[in-house]
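User: Structure please.
Assistant: Input sequence and predicted structure:
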Amino acid sequence: MLLGESTVLTCAHVVQAVGGEALTLPECPAGQLVVRFVGLPGMPEAYAGVRPGCWVPPLPDGRGDIALLELSEAFPGVPGAPLVRLGAVRDRVVYTYGFPPPHQHGVWVNDAELAGPAGPGSEWVQLNSKPPGERVRRGFSGAGVIDKATDAVLGMVVTEYTDERLGLAYLIPVETIVRHVPEVARWVGEPPRPPSGPLVVVIGDRDSAVVRDFLTQVRRERRGSRPGRGDRLAAIVDATGKTADEVAENVSAGISTEEVTTVLATNPEDVAVAVAGVDAARAPEEVLTGAVKPLMDKGATVLVQFSGPDSPGVRLARRWESERNARRLDRLALLVEMVEHEEERTRERAAQVGTRAHPAAEVPGHAADLRLRLAALRSAGERIDPGRVRRALTVTERDAEAARRELVRLHADLDAHAARHDELRGRLRGYNAKATDAGFMEDEELAGLYRPAMAALAAVPGNPAAAAELVERYVRAVRHRLAGS
């Protein structure tokens, strides 16, 4: 899997198969370790070597088996795998792509299911392929395992179960990969957003419902858009009496055709279009399918206005709204699982670290509330207006994303404080050993500095800054004694 512009993730045994475990660029000889991009015609091959410190060969019990490769050149235009970190995932439908013999050009496995933790040390997740179709087997190792509902990458294939009748295989989840190779964490994020842009259905008077509130609604709907861009790339088109082609032409006239094409390809969230009077168009449903949906599919935010709830085209627009809500619910469900997992691992880390290294290690508990909100949104069904569901989804997504980021930051902070605490303890003991070896074991002044430093490191709650100062005082005193002797 390509993670960044020049970084590739795969299984160590795949690299070992071509004798590349000890090779680092630029030492990798031609023809030894070559990376080829799949599904991207015209992309050149690239040489690769193992990135230093990122080699975890299979341990005797099968754990590990991870390698991070550095390509000989960067490919900034190629999108990286959207990794997400989960715990013991199960019951998710996934798909993957591999090269089992004799399929030299590759083959898909669709609708495989994650069954739960398995393998050595429960580091893997069991992957069940559905017979009688293609199954995950030899030739898939290192392939990304992709969540069918969200297109997020949950892990990579590591091995197969040799009994072909059962169709069993295993993957290394992202959580395990990061534990073995911490550098991979920089590429772990949130699941991709649905590719199609928001559709806002407005029922009512055109002037009050669209013209006056259009940009306000767009800003409310869109997340993460840069200030000012949406305003500049916004257009309002009156569809009254127009065909689908005429509406599309008016959109292009309202926003520079060249500019909107470029931005839709790079930053579609910066494009917003309102189509008023859809029900008064010559063929309302043709306007929706021929002018509105192409913009949505490319990622633009589109607002459509109808004069009444039973107007022509409303049912189709509402169906699209509900379908997109369903895709967003799938993503939200994965986000909530991620928040639950981040809470669990952060609480475990806080318990390990305790209050000595981090006095304020209280872990926020957002997951339970998010799970309740997700359940309420899922149960809404057709009883609640899709627009209300969409707005609630937007708020809940923001809260889930913020909660995950907060937990990730807290976990990293706990790690940093723990590392600093261990560093200070090791420094204090190391200089104490030097003082003892030099014959200063009975030195009362040094003992008077050592005891409070050790007590500060053991104190609950701790004060890292004060402990660091006491340790440094002791270190300076030992150095002074050693220099004088």
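The CA atoms of residues 108 and 283 lie 40 Å apart.
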